[in-house]
Amino acid sequence: MATSTKLAPDSCGAYYGCLPNTFERVSDVPAIAVDNSSGASAGRLYIAFYNWTGTFMSVRVVSSLDGGATWSPQRAVAPSTDTRDQFFPWVNVDSNGLVAVTFLDRRSDPNNLRYEAWVGISKDGLTYKNIKLSTAPSNPNNDGFGGGFMGDYTGNVWNGGSILASWMDTRSGVSQDEVGGVAIH
Protein backbone atom coordinates (compact mmCIF):
# COMPACT_ATOMS: atom_id res chain seq x y z
CA MET A 1 0.00 0.00 0.00
CA ALA A 2 1.33 3.42 -0.95
CA THR A 3 -0.34 5.35 1.89
CA SER A 4 -3.62 5.77 3.72
CA THR A 5 -5.78 8.88 3.66
CA LYS A 6 -8.83 10.31 5.36
CA LEU A 7 -11.67 11.74 3.30
CA ALA A 8 -13.30 15.09 4.06
CA PRO A 9 -16.52 14.81 6.12
CA ASP A 10 -19.67 13.88 4.20
CA SER A 11 -22.02 16.81 4.74
CA CYS A 12 -23.66 16.67 1.29
CA GLY A 13 -24.63 13.02 0.87
CA ALA A 14 -21.65 11.95 -1.22
CA TYR A 15 -20.14 8.80 0.18
CA TYR A 16 -16.59 10.04 -0.49
CA GLY A 17 -16.67 13.42 1.22
CA CYS A 18 -17.74 16.98 0.55
CA LEU A 19 -15.87 20.23 0.05
CA PRO A 20 -16.20 22.00 3.42
CA ASN A 21 -18.57 25.01 3.52
CA THR A 22 -20.40 23.75 0.40
CA PHE A 23 -22.66 20.98 -0.89
CA GLU A 24 -20.03 20.03 -3.51
CA ARG A 25 -18.84 16.45 -3.54
CA VAL A 26 -15.07 16.17 -3.57
CA SER A 27 -13.63 12.95 -4.87
CA ASP A 28 -10.15 11.86 -3.85
CA VAL A 29 -9.02 10.24 -7.07
CA PRO A 30 -5.24 9.81 -6.86
CA ALA A 31 -3.21 11.02 -9.84
CA ILE A 32 -0.10 9.00 -10.75
CA ALA A 33 3.00 10.04 -12.72
CA VAL A 34 6.31 8.40 -13.61
CA ASP A 35 9.66 10.14 -14.01
CA ASN A 36 10.78 9.03 -17.48
CA SER A 37 13.84 11.29 -17.49
CA SER A 38 17.43 10.11 -17.38
CA GLY A 39 18.07 12.17 -14.23
CA ALA A 40 18.70 11.15 -10.63
CA SER A 41 15.01 10.34 -10.03
CA ALA A 42 14.50 8.30 -13.21
CA GLY A 43 11.80 5.69 -12.69
CA ARG A 44 10.37 7.32 -9.58
CA LEU A 45 6.60 6.98 -9.21
CA TYR A 46 4.53 9.85 -7.79
CA ILE A 47 0.99 9.80 -6.43
CA ALA A 48 -0.87 13.05 -5.65
CA PHE A 49 -4.03 13.11 -3.50
CA TYR A 50 -5.67 15.05 -0.68
CA ASN A 51 -5.71 14.03 2.99
CA TRP A 52 -8.22 15.34 5.53
CA THR A 53 -6.18 16.65 8.48
CA GLY A 54 -9.17 16.98 10.80
CA THR A 55 -9.52 20.68 10.01
CA PHE A 56 -8.72 21.05 6.31
CA MET A 57 -7.94 19.14 3.11
CA SER A 58 -4.20 19.03 2.38
CA VAL A 59 -2.73 18.08 -1.02
CA ARG A 60 0.01 15.51 -0.52
CA VAL A 61 2.45 13.45 -2.60
CA VAL A 62 4.10 10.09 -1.97
CA SER A 63 6.81 8.60 -4.17
CA SER A 64 8.56 5.31 -4.77
CA LEU A 65 11.98 4.56 -6.25
CA ASP A 66 11.53 0.78 -6.32
CA GLY A 67 8.48 0.26 -8.50
CA GLY A 68 6.01 0.65 -5.64
CA ALA A 69 7.52 -1.87 -3.20
CA THR A 70 8.13 0.95 -0.68
CA TRP A 71 6.83 4.50 -0.48
CA SER A 72 8.00 7.78 1.00
CA PRO A 73 6.11 9.52 3.79
CA GLN A 74 3.41 11.94 2.69
CA ARG A 75 4.79 15.33 1.64
CA ALA A 76 2.64 18.46 1.67
CA VAL A 77 2.66 20.41 -1.60
CA ALA A 78 1.41 23.71 -0.14
CA PRO A 79 3.46 25.56 2.51
CA SER A 80 2.79 24.67 6.15
CA THR A 81 1.24 28.12 6.66
CA ASP A 82 -1.58 27.15 4.25
CA THR A 83 -4.26 25.72 6.54
CA ARG A 84 -7.22 26.14 4.21
CA ASP A 85 -8.65 23.50 1.90
CA GLN A 86 -6.56 22.20 -1.02
CA PHE A 87 -8.19 19.74 -3.40
CA PHE A 88 -8.37 18.15 -6.88
CA PRO A 89 -4.62 17.58 -7.37
CA TRP A 90 -2.95 16.35 -10.55
CA VAL A 91 0.71 15.38 -10.99
CA ASN A 92 3.02 15.20 -13.98
CA VAL A 93 6.80 14.99 -14.55
CA ASP A 94 8.68 16.71 -17.38
CA SER A 95 11.49 15.21 -19.48
CA ASN A 96 14.08 16.63 -17.06
CA GLY A 97 12.47 15.11 -13.95
CA LEU A 98 10.74 18.32 -12.79
CA VAL A 99 7.54 17.48 -10.85
CA ALA A 100 4.40 19.64 -11.16
CA VAL A 101 1.38 19.20 -8.90
CA THR A 102 -1.58 21.39 -9.82
CA PHE A 103 -4.45 21.83 -7.37
CA LEU A 104 -7.23 24.12 -6.19
CA ASP A 105 -6.55 26.06 -2.98
CA ARG A 106 -8.53 28.37 -0.69
CA ARG A 107 -5.49 29.97 1.00
CA SER A 108 -6.45 33.51 -0.08
CA ASP A 109 -10.02 33.40 1.31
CA PRO A 110 -10.35 33.91 5.08
CA ASN A 111 -13.85 32.35 4.81
CA ASN A 112 -12.40 29.17 3.22
CA LEU A 113 -14.85 29.23 0.30
CA ARG A 114 -13.37 30.76 -2.87
CA TYR A 115 -10.50 28.90 -4.49
CA GLU A 116 -7.71 29.58 -6.94
CA ALA A 117 -5.59 27.27 -9.08
CA TRP A 118 -1.98 26.71 -7.97
CA VAL A 119 0.98 24.59 -9.02
CA GLY A 120 3.68 23.17 -6.79
CA ILE A 121 6.99 22.65 -8.61
CA SER A 122 9.69 20.33 -7.26
CA LYS A 123 13.15 19.32 -8.43
CA ASP A 124 13.45 16.55 -5.83
CA GLY A 125 9.87 15.46 -5.08
CA LEU A 126 10.38 16.55 -1.47
CA THR A 127 9.89 20.32 -1.42
CA TYR A 128 7.55 22.35 -3.61
CA LYS A 129 7.66 25.97 -4.76
CA ASN A 130 4.07 27.23 -5.15
CA ILE A 131 2.99 29.47 -8.05
CA LYS A 132 -0.55 30.81 -8.47
CA LEU A 133 -2.04 30.00 -11.90
CA SER A 134 -5.48 31.63 -11.83
CA THR A 135 -6.00 35.36 -12.18
CA ALA A 136 -9.25 35.53 -10.18
CA PRO A 137 -10.89 33.43 -7.46
CA SER A 138 -13.79 31.09 -8.14
CA ASN A 139 -16.83 30.39 -5.99
CA PRO A 140 -17.77 26.69 -5.95
CA ASN A 141 -21.44 27.63 -5.45
CA ASN A 142 -21.42 29.18 -8.95
CA ASP A 143 -20.97 25.81 -10.61
CA GLY A 144 -23.92 25.95 -13.00
CA PHE A 145 -25.59 23.05 -11.15
CA GLY A 146 -27.03 24.86 -8.14
CA GLY A 147 -23.95 24.47 -5.96
CA GLY A 148 -23.87 20.67 -6.06
CA PHE A 149 -21.41 19.65 -8.79
CA MET A 150 -18.36 21.57 -9.91
CA GLY A 151 -16.68 18.54 -11.45
CA ASP A 152 -14.32 15.84 -10.26
CA TYR A 153 -11.02 16.45 -12.01
CA THR A 154 -8.33 18.92 -12.83
CA GLY A 155 -5.32 18.15 -15.00
CA ASN A 156 -1.96 19.26 -16.30
CA VAL A 157 0.56 18.51 -19.02
CA TRP A 158 4.09 19.68 -19.70
CA ASN A 159 4.68 21.52 -22.99
CA GLY A 160 8.39 22.19 -23.31
CA GLY A 161 9.33 24.31 -20.30
CA SER A 162 5.74 25.24 -19.41
CA ILE A 163 3.13 23.48 -17.34
CA LEU A 164 -0.39 23.80 -18.76
CA ALA A 165 -3.28 23.17 -16.39
CA SER A 166 -7.06 22.84 -16.53
CA TRP A 167 -9.46 23.49 -13.67
CA MET A 168 -13.05 24.48 -12.90
CA ASP A 169 -13.19 28.27 -13.11
CA THR A 170 -16.50 29.79 -12.01
CA ARG A 171 -15.66 33.51 -11.96
CA SER A 172 -18.41 34.13 -14.54
CA GLY A 173 -21.01 32.35 -12.38
CA VAL A 174 -21.09 29.26 -14.61
CA SER A 175 -18.86 26.21 -14.29
CA GLN A 176 -16.23 26.18 -17.02
CA ASP A 177 -12.75 24.86 -17.57
CA GLU A 178 -9.90 27.26 -17.94
CA VAL A 179 -6.45 26.45 -19.18
CA GLY A 180 -3.54 28.39 -17.80
CA GLY A 181 0.16 27.97 -18.12
CA VAL A 182 3.36 29.14 -16.59
CA ALA A 183 6.89 28.95 -17.95
CA ILE A 184 9.04 27.07 -15.44
CA HIS A 185 12.46 26.73 -17.07
What would your notes on this structure say?
- With 185 residues, the protein is an all-beta fold.
- The chain has a single domain, classed as Neuraminidase.
- The chain has a 4-stranded antiparallel beta sheet, with no helix packed on it.
- Strand 5 and strand 6 form a beta hairpin.
- The protein is globular and about 45 Å long.
How would you briefly describe this protein structure?
The protein is mainly β and 185 residues long.
List keywords for this structure.
185 residues; mainly beta; Neuraminidase; 4-stranded antiparallel sheet
Indicate the CATH topology.
Neuraminidase
Helix content: under 10%
Order the strands across the largest sheet as they lie in space.
1-2-3-4
Query: How many domains make up the coordinates?
Result: 1
| Main pleated-sheet profile | 4 strands, antiparallel
Structural class: mainly beta
**Order of H and E elements:** EEEEEEEEEEE
Distance from N terminus to C terminus (CA atoms, Å) equals 34 Å
As residue ranges, the low-confidence spans are: none
The first-level CATH class is given as Mainly Beta
Radius of gyration, CA atoms, in whole angstroms: 16 Å
How many β-strand runs?
Answer: 11
Mean pLDDT: 91
Tell me the CATH architecture: 6 Propeller
- Overall outline: globular
Strand content: 35-45%
Total helical segments? 0
